[in-house]
DNA mismatch repair protein MutL
Amino acid sequence: KNTIDQIAAGEVVERPASVVKELVENAIDSGANAVTVEIKGGGIDMIRVTDNGSGIEKSQIRKAFKRHATSKLTCIDDLYTIHSLGFRGEALSSISSVAQVDMITKTADDLTGTRYTINGGEEISFEEIGAPDGTSLIVRNLFYNTPARKKFLKTPQTEGSYVGDVMEHLALDNPTVSFHYINNKEDKFSTTGNGDLKEIIYRIYGRDISVSLVPINVSDNGYTLEGYLGEPSINRSNRNFEIFFVNGRYVKDKVMSKALEEGYKQYLMMHKFPFAVLHLRLDPSMVDVNVHPAKLEVRFGNQPALYDFIKTHVENTLRSHEM
Ligand code: ADP
Ligand code: MG
């Protein structure tokens, strides 16, 4: 049973960045509008996510760390079935089975908070403690009890940079949540939560890019595209700055990339790529987000229509900005 837990955990928890993503999504789900994330040693040594959300009621704490959505999982074969179901209800149980976890949580209705410690899936302590409203989760020594998995991690510096990417995408995806991100005691960025996407881009990527952003906001044919296009002269040498969200989820997608690059075509130098942050919204039935729940791929229903929509509007927006 414990082995199955650890294998299942490997599917949800690949590396520190995936832990951070799950914990921040839980924080946002709990209604938090301020989330602080601090990591040490690339997130392998320590990840702390603190929120001002609902907190967890004392009677619900142990339950939160039990695998619920997929408690039917009893053999290795079932793991394959999970792919199609999505991994909901897996994060805390998975993370706590492969790390040392400390949680401090308090709801507004409770007078005291609780500190709960669980290491490698085993409860260590459950005690009353004074705490502010909200939840703070500390994850230490990721994969300390699964050395085979730990071997697949890259250097702390590289793992830390993956966490940084995830934090940037979360901040860009949630403009009304205030984020603060700290890596090895160094303040990386913070956002105000005032809803201004342009200001978030400024705070993450700096002044050079943000002074010359071209806003785009178009709706057509069941698609809505909203965000900012970098000044055509600001070219990049890789696609890391083609930042796409589909219905509020960060994705990497070839159709969107190609369409964006085609829209920029006359401005781009050879082998260069644009800077863009784009939120695409469309009817959920027109996009399959469950190609793999933990991965960044999606599959669109009508690719040619989407391609034309993005390319045409990017082109038109850039052209009208020039004049
Ligand atoms: P899921 O989010 O899919 O329900 P998780 O394992 O991520 O599964 O979380 C289990 C449960 O723990 C959540 O459903 C929620 O009730 C509770 N929980 C987790 N993190 C928080 C948090 N930061 N604030 C409040 N409740 C939380
Ligand atoms: Mg969750």
